[in-house]
Design brief:
single chain, about 575 residues, mainly alpha, Transcription Regulator spoIIAA, 2 domains, four-stranded parallel sheet, two-stranded antiparallel ribbon, 6 strands, globular, disordered N terminus
Length: about 575
């Protein structure tokens, strides 16, 4: 019979983190959560309004979404510090839905996407998102970032355009044609916003750049009477009071046309929320429950339209702000929602003076941050297949339609997986040389030093399998100083696998441990070289089965006498064990 403690742990996997954290909640944790919640609530204010405006809705729709979904995702979710709300990932798809089907169509689509997310989480499919390869995810985020930036150019430069086209190239053509209507006051405000946010980040990650930029820009417009467009002049301000509950109008004839967009919203929501939860895990040293998180995201998206809100997901930037501000439990996320309620009740009239150019500047920084541009040089070092997948996904996102890009990305993922697995299948004759070569790799008669441990990867290490590397990272602080990853039986690797190895290497390095890769076969070895992986762990820590380990053993003994286990001793240990690996 299974022990009771095991049953409790099993049940805990489906219990929201807010309930688990209350078991040992204290006044000290509440004070930390209070400060973090108020801070991230103020940061969320300009972002929520900016995302709603960029999506073609009123600014209060973004605030209502942040209030309702922010509270529900924190109360029901599987992450301790995740902050939910409207995000940049949805701006483009929401704007397209509103343009094609109206606000009622958007509300229907949000509810349908929420139901899909609940089904994904309830059926244990929270880990299915891992089957989307890294080049596809990077292509999505690159394309969405470009589209968001392009939608903000009008307000960034204060251009006079009656209606901004929804298609990218038509939008850019309209902006170029009307660029002579540029407002110098708006441009200076927007550029000042960007500079202020960059300075805040350079000075300290704890300084809330969006708040500083919004307050400075609003005060400047009010004090100097600058002739720029504000929330008050464009939307007539934000109504005071709580969000009103209202049943959306459901049109059965729209359901078929909204299936594709609903699938897109659900997939983007799942991807971004789980990516944000992973970031939160790294920063807070916690471990989220992906299925519970998806159920919470689904419930929040089902409820949001009943209060006039947008689709929502986990927000990486606000989650990071929450953790840096000292959040300990999901209570901080609930306080963040209550902070926005206080703004609606007591400070709504003040938002009339917020300039549109300032919100455009804030979204420009958001677009840049979400673009994951640093990964492009790494992708360009990989195989032509990975590069082509990234380019196709990026191009379809920008020039076609986000729904098409998601669908094409999934098809590419399936084809990529089939091709990679097929390429690992070989048929060869067993010869005497093969038998002799295999004998030196037997570990049973080799001694492994106490200061080292060996993990092995068996089979292709492709997207969909990379979460298995958690065997190493989950008990990282119990590992010895040297961690050796044996790759002899790893038949293939892709960009997602390399990304997982890089993340693991950085985590080991942060705990003063050395990672060594040994015995990689032809395809993995070639890709590791192309990706310049030695820059991450050191050239001396990527080893093959070379001869002459005697001198290396001597260097190990010398390093042990001196004490410490840095990269040099890592290399020594690697070569002392080469005949074993």
């Amino acid at each position: 019979m299974e022990p009771a403690s095991s049953l409790v742990r099993l049940d805990d996997r489906w219990v929201p983190k807010s309930i688990l954290c209350l078991r040992d909640y204290s006044l000290n944790k509440f004070l930390h959560d209070l400060v973090a919640g108020v801070t991230v609530g103020l940061v969320a204010l300009p972002l929520a309004m900016a995302f709603a405006i960029a999506s073609g809705l009123t600014p209060q729709a973004g605030i209502y979404c942040a209030v309702v979904t922010g509270f529900l995702i924190s109360a029901l979710g599987g992450s301790k510090t995740q902050i939910g709300g409207p995000t940049g990932a949805f701006v483009v798809v929401v704007a397209g839905i509103v343009a094609a089907h109206g606000v009622d169509g958007l509300f229907m689509c949000t509810v349908m996407a929420g139901i899909l997310l609940v089904i994904l989480g309830a059926t244990g499919m929270g880990t299915a998102v891992k089957f989307i390869p890294r080049p596809v995810v990077v292509g999505f985020t690159n394309g969405i970032a470009v589209l968001i930036a392009s939608t903000q150019l009008k307000d960034f430069f204060g251009l006079h355009i009656d209606k901004v086209p929804g298609v990218f190239w038509l939008r850019m053509e309209a902006i170029a044609r009307n660029f002579h209507t540029l407002s110098y006051e708006a441009t200076i405000l927007a550029v000042g916003t960007v500079v202020a946010m960059l300075l805040c980040r350079a000075l300290s990650s704890r300084i809330p750049g969006p708040i500083v930029a919004m307050l400075a820009g609003t005060i400047a417009v009010f004090a100097l009477k600058l002739p720029v467009e504000t929330i008050g002049t464009r939307f007539g301000g934000i109504p005071s009071g709580l969000p009103h509950f209202a049943l959306p109008h459901f049109h059965s004839d729209l359901i078929h046309g909204l299936l594709g967009p609903a699938f897109t919203v659900a997939m983007l929501g799942a991807i971004e929320s789980l990516m944000s939860a992973v970031v939160a895990d790294r920063m807070s040293h916690d471990h989220h429950s992906p299925n519970v998180e998806l159920v919470a995201q689904g419930v929040a998206n089902v409820v949001s339209p009943f209060f006039g809100g947008l689709p929502a997901t986990g927000a990486i930037a606000r989650t990071a702000t929450n953790i840096r501000a000292g959040a300990k439990t999901p209570v901080a996320g609930m306080i963040h929602a209550l902070t926005l309620v206080c703004v609606l009740l007591f400070a709504a009239p003040l938002t009339n003076y917020i300039p549109m150019a300032v919100l455009a500047g804030i979204l420009m920084i958001v677009a840049y941050n979400m673009g994951e541009w640093r990964e492009i040089p790494q992708l360009l070092k990989l195989t032509k297949t990975d590069i082509s997948v990234w380019l196709v996904t990026f191009a379809l996102t920008v020039f076609a339609d986000l729904t098409v890009a998601v669908e094409a990305g999934m098809i590419l993922a399936a084809l990529l997986f089939i091709g990679r697995v097929a390429s690992t299948t070989t048929v060869s004759q067993v010869t005497d040389d093969y038998v002799r070569d295999g004998q030196v790799h037997i570990l049973q008669d080799k001694d492994i030093p106490y200061y080292a441990t060996i993990f092995r990867i068996h089979g292709p290490f492709l997207f969909g399998a990379t979460d298995k590397i958690s065997v190493v990272t989950e008990k990282m602080h119990q590992l010895p100083p040297v961690v050796i990853l044996r790759l002899r039986n790893m038949t293939a690797i892709d960009a997602t696998g390399l990304f997982a190895l890089e993340e693991m290497a950085r985590q080991l390095h942060a705990t003063k441990r050395t990672l060594i890769l040994c015995g990689a076969r032809e395809q993995p070895a070639r890709l590791i070289r192309q990706a310049e992986f030695e820059e991450v762990i050191g050239h001396e820590n990527i080893c093959d089965n070379a001869s002459g380990p005697t001198a290396r053993r001597r260097r190990v003994r010398e390093a042990r006498v001196k004490g410490g286990f840095g990269h040099e001793i890592g290399a020594c240990v690697a070569h002392s064990l080469l005949t074993s690996l």
